Amino acid sequence: MTDRYRDRPKTDLANLAGYAAAAGQEARAVAARRKMMPVRLTDEERRVGIDELSEQFAIGRLDEAELHRRVDIVNEAVTHADLQPAFHGLPQPGLYALPPRRQGRWRWAAFVGAIWLALPFFLTGLALLVFGREVAAAIFALPALAFVGVTWRWAKAPTRRSRQS
Questions:
Q1: What span, in angstroms and rounded, lies between the C-alpha atoms of 84 and 86?
Q2: In angstroms, what CA-CA distances link 36 with 27, 28, 118, 129, 131?
């Protein structure tokens, strides 16, 4: 019996997740550009566009005549849609960079999950304490409280990215 999938490249779950994340990020960037197309350009955005073209000239992607032609397109552009031909075949300018996502909200969601996970143990310990089983109450309730406390400290701690900035 032959294996018909033997010649196919093997992909693992991490690669697929990476592809999906990259596709999602690229789709968000395209949507942000599309949303900006009818918006009129400001003088600052024209300056950023010309700076981007100058940078492409400096690294050798454009010759001098092509730079002047594209700068003229940027200067004559009225909307962001008019600006697109100036960057045809080049990386998109920084005007369309997505703002960074806010970090850390998932930590608080994990903290709420920790509370729900520890709640049955705490209530069991409380019930045992009511019925006079102090040692059993301590075995159930104290680790649950410690778990919630550690998770709370972790959730309120600054993330690595916020410490770097």
A1: 5
A2: 14, 12, 48, 63, 67
pLDDT in tens, 37-80: 898 999 999 999 999 999 999 999 999 999 999 999 999 999 98
Give the pair of three-digit tokens for residue 135.
């040692």
Both tokens assigned to 10: 């093997």
User: What are the residues facing 79 on neighbouring strands?
Assistant: 40
Q: What are phi and psi of 79, to 5 degrees?
A: -115, 175
* Helical pair 105-130 and 134-156, crossing angle rounded to 10 deg: 170
Q: Quick one: which of 164, 13, 29 has its CA closest to 98?
A: 29
DSSP label of 102: P
